[in-house]
Amino acid sequence: MKKLWANSNRKLGDFLQSMCFSGPSFLGMLLFYVVPFGVVVYYSFIAGAMDHSFVGFQNYKNVLENGAYKIAVHNTVVFSALSVPLAVVLSLLMALMLECRIPWKSQFRTFFLSPMMVPVASIILVWQVLFHANGVVNEFLALFGATGIDWLKSDYCMVVIVVLFLWKNLGYNMILFMAALNNIPKTLLEVAEVEGASAGYQFFHIKLRYLSPTVLFVTILSIINSFKIFREVYLLTGNYPYDKLYMLQHFMNNMFANLDYQKLSAAAVLLALVIVALLAILFAVENWFGKDVEG
Questions:
Q1: What class, spelled out in words, does domain 63-294 have in CATH?
Q2: What is the pLDDT of residues 243-260, one digit of tens each?
Q3: Best label site of 27, 101, 177, 253, fewest CB within 10 Å?
Q4: Residue 229, Cβ neighbours under 10 Å: how many?
Q5: DSSP bridge partners of 54
């Protein structure tokens, strides 16, 4: 009985000690993340800021039937579907290229890491100079007889934003893949080479298996960053850009400016549910793909 009591006291002491270290972080997360999200969920089910009567899923219905919301969802899905796979695949290819013995390796790595050191405002100024109706790109195209266009108000506006996204994020993703490639057991690759395995076989059956956790992490990071593109688009085009650049963050920002907290809250909850579903799918795929490595 005394031994059981001593074990209980020791476990309680360990718990209290762990809470002393993790308690401040937990309270901060509770205060700045969990509680505000709970407030958002609450506002998505009430009639208004002054009228707190329960309306069920009416706010969600209003959001899903809103024309601006449909445009924003379509543009956000298109942008993420284009930018995220490109960010993952291109950064992996660059990491594989830098793993080889190529000239100007340090300069190449510096070029793709330099956007991380440049402020967003400076990047926007560069893009405005490049893709303005009278910008550098149009001046260059005019040398070949092409007619200049206003890139940010044309059907090519999404291409401009995708290129901006890739230029900003490829360098960091590339460093993550380079670190993961260095952690692959060299002996395993040497045995595969001795056995006559081709470079393609080594990549798809050995390297990619060990890279699966990093691919998952880079994919999640790219998805999160793709939802943050609003900052750059806002600085380039303002509150109400060309229709094909109107993102979910534009919709929520405009709902906040119009004090329509119900639609804002419903849209935020829907976005959170979609992100959670995407993460669950990605973790399931990674667990299935990397199970041989873990075993």
A1: mainly alpha
A2: 888 888 888 888 888 888
A3: 101
A4: 21
A5: 46
